[in-house]
Amino acid sequence: MEVQFLGTAAFEGIPSLFCQCSTCKQARERGGKNMRSRTSVIIDQVLKVDFPPDTLYHSHRYGLDMNSIQDLLITHSHSDHLYAEDMAIRAEGYAQSGDKAIHVYGHDLPFRLCFQALNGLEHNYQFHRVLPFVPIKTQTAMIVPLLADHDQLETCLLYYIEKDGKAILYGNDSGWFPEQTWAWLKDKKLDLAILECTTGKSSHRNNHMNVDAVLETKAWMEANGVLKEGAPVLVTHFSHNAGLLHEDLLGIFEPHGIQVAYDGLIVQL
Ligand SMILES: [Zn+2]
Ligand SMILES: [Zn+2]
Ligand SMILES: [Zn+2]
């Protein structure tokens, strides 16, 4: 199985559009792994998580055939995870996309945004509303939506994804997991855990995870046998406001056996 990180930044991107903070300035100078677009991953070219505003850029940069996607999982409605207006680009009159449907999985609010964007257009998406902790078989995987502690006014989801005998936790945007999510994860065996570290060394761990929350989550997973032998743990969804360059993140996470994702990184399982 191949998991590709298409983007690894929070809402603002790094370097951010207008920002003159020292992190953005240094990222502009250094380039490379410090250049981060909005967060998404694609698995085996057929299952994608989230649809950020950088999706067109991702398809250009990585040479993606977006019509190979069969399942699109949406975590929540924030614009760095769902730029619904671009969903219309697949509709009739904008694209000749063939008759193969893309199946979209998510909760009420993201779907409302998609329906607004697609209003009156002929399109070939099939929408499947998911509920927390209720397993659902998609075209390419078995998924279980888990609860996040992110936007208190919205049901934000993490995804457990089981595909070709491998189990992945997509934990983004999570905050410190709610009790039900910890309880659900306790007897699972993961081949890969993807966590968010948006707030860096700040003390904030609700709505978004900070460094300590990521380290404690990995320790909890190890203590409970949730990670299979050698299963990688990766962090993603970084904000320039955390003030950490790629090299700084490596210095923080590598000693703890946690990999720092960057745009384009491919993980083979
Ligand atoms: Zn986000
Ligand atoms: Zn900045
Ligand atoms: Zn968010």
From TrEMBL:
Pfam families according to UniProt: Lactamase_B_2 (PF12706)
Catalyzed chemical reaction(s): 3',5'-cyclic UMP + H2O = UMP + H(+); 3',5'-cyclic CMP + H2O = CMP + H(+)
Residue stretches making up the Metallo-beta-lactamase domain: 64-219
Top-level taxon: Bacteria
PANTHER family noted in UniProt: HYDROLASE C777.06C-RELATED (PTHR42663:SF6), HYDROLASE C777.06C-RELATED-RELATED (PTHR42663)
Protein purpose: Counteracts the endogenous Pycsar antiviral defense system. Phosphodiesterase that enables metal-dependent hydrolysis of host cyclic nucleotide Pycsar defense signals such as cCMP and cUMP.
Stated name of the protein: Metallo-beta-lactamase domain-containing protein
Organism field: Paenibacillus marchantiophytorum
